[in-house]
Design brief:
mainly alpha
Length: 232
């Protein structure tokens, strides 16, 4: 049984490598979708381990190493091959910092995991940052007119890199306590969101991911301003 969750982790890393190869060949849409597929396997491995009671220190370390490939190197290479190479050293710097800060984020998460709150993440999770890069590139491929604004994608990826090692809190969604009184409202919202994702999958995922990234920034800014006003 211990093999099963690690098999999903290995699949996530394997798909990440295939994504890198696809990006190097100029198959950017395929590479981006592979990153999203890798995210599914990454989400399954931990849940399988908990359901089968096969969590282990090896599994935690293996998962982090797989995440570096699938959500660090793969999106960084996709970003560079898609548009980063057009901006010389700056494009290389953004891709490199995305990987390095992603590795720092994973190392910090492993160290802080026993004492961290289950309902929040400290800094943007590296899979979320990878999805941000992947879906925006998918959007650029869907609407080629946006390619002339690829510089903003590099800035967004660089922002995600810094957010990964920041102390800004983001909701986890791992342990959500749903009150019965809000169950109908939540169900209605989920149906609406899923309907929009069905109609506009790429646009919908891009908007949701971007809102999540910006949420932490605006939330942190709000608390900083609110605290200053209270002190005054």
């Amino acid at each position: 049984m211990y093999i099963l969750p690690n098999l999903f982790t290995a699949a996530s890393a394997f798909i990440g490598v295939i994504s890198i190869i696809a990006a190097s060949k100029g198959e950017f849409q395929k590479a981006a979708w592979l990153i999203l597929l890798s995210l599914i396997f990454d989400g399954i491995d931990g849940r399988v381990a908990r359901l089968t009671h096969t969590t282990s220190k090896f599994g935690v370390e293996f998962d982090s190493l797989a995440d570096i490939v699938a959500f660090g190197v793969a999106p960084a290479m996709l970003l560079y091959f898609c548009c980063g190479h057009e901006y010389g050293k700056f494009g290389s710097l953004v891709s490199a910092m995305f990987v390095v800060f992603g590795a720092i984020r994973l190392a910090r998460f492993n160290v802080m995991a026993p004492s961290s709150e289950p309902s929040v993440f400290i800094g943007v999770p590296i899979p979320t940052a990878a999805v941000f890069v992947a879906v925006w590139i998918l959007l650029f491929q869907e609407y080629p007119i946006l390619l002339k604004y690829s510089y903003f994608l590099l800035i967004g990826a660089l922002l995600c890199a810094f957010l990964m090692v920041s102390n800004i809190r983001y909701p986890s969604f791992k342990k959500i306590e749903l009150q019965k009184i809000n169950a109908i409202k939540i169900l209605i919202i989920l149906v609406i969101v899923l309907s929009l994702l069905y109609l506009f999958p790429i646009e919908g995922i891009t908007i949701l991911t971007t809102i999540y990234i910006l949420y932490g920034i605006f939330r942190a800014a709000y608390f900083v301003i609110f605290r200053k006003k209270r002190k005054i």
